[in-house]
């Protein structure tokens, strides 16, 4: 007995195919950044690694920068989700700081080239990337403020922190991570420095 495909099934299949092609292109960009950096990557490099065509690329992205923005938007959202999940709000507040920093470092070590490209390449690009930089900063600021606003922080810790303080914390973490990767170091080796500096900064009232 043959199976009749329903219209909504056809639509679902089309969406699945589109998502698969888009993911392949993003993976192609990741592979190229790891091998030769974002600045030296061309659309030809992306489609070659994705094993597809330039025509397919332009069905999903207006250009290399748009592909890069999509990649980093997804990567940053995943990173924020992982950090939020890693922190136990019932733990002592200093332990919560450590949990958050350790997860940040795990993310950086998993994809150091992408992390470095986010920190170093985005500021020099066009309007879309500048919007990404601002949006990602605001998302991480909101994440830090959320993490610093629970019963443990209010009872035993410094309490909620200001937006200005979270921006300073985020900027320090980003620069420390970038310099460590650029110097071919292991990001894990700066864990203690990052934890203690973050605790000191967050404890400032």
Automatic annotation (TrEMBL):
Keyword Isomerase: no
Record feature DNA-binding region, as residue ranges: 42-61
Keyword terms of this UniProt record: DNA-binding
Span of domain HTH tetR-type: 19-79
InterPro entries hit by this protein: Homeodomain-like_sf (IPR009057), HTH-type_TetR-like_transc_reg (IPR050109), HTH_TetR (IPR001647)
Classification via Gene3D superfamilies: Tetracycline Repressor, domain 2 (1.10.357.10)
Protein name listed in UniProt: TetR/AcrR family transcriptional regulator
Lineage of origin: Bacteria, Bacillati, Actinomycetota, Actinomycetes, Streptosporangiales
């Amino acid at each position: 007995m043959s199976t009749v495909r329903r219209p909504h099934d056809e639509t679902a299949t089309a969406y699945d195919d589109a998502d698969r092609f888009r993911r392949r292109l993003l993976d192609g960009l990741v592979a190229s950044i790891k091998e030769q950096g974002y600045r030296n990557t061309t659309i030809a490099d992306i489609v070659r690694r994705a094993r597809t065509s330039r025509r397919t690329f332009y069905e999903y992205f207006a250009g290399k920068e748009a592909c890069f923005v999509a990649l980093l938007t997804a990567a940053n959202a995943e990173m924020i989700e992982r950090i939020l999940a890693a922190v136990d709000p019932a733990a002592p507040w200093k332990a919560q700081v450590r949990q958050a920093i350790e997860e940040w470092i795990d993310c950086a070590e998993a994809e150091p080239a992408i992390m470095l490209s986010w920190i170093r390449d985005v500021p020099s690009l066009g309007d879309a990337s500048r919007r990404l930089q601002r949006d990602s900063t605001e998302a991480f600021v909101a994440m830090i403020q959320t993490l610093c606003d629970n019963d443990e922080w209010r009872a035993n810790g410094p309490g909620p922190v200001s937006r200005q303080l979270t921006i300073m914390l985020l900027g320090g973490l980003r620069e420390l991570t970038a310099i460590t990767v650029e110097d071919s170091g292991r990001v894990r080796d700066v864990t203690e420095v990052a934890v203690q500096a973050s605790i000191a900064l967050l404890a400032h009232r």
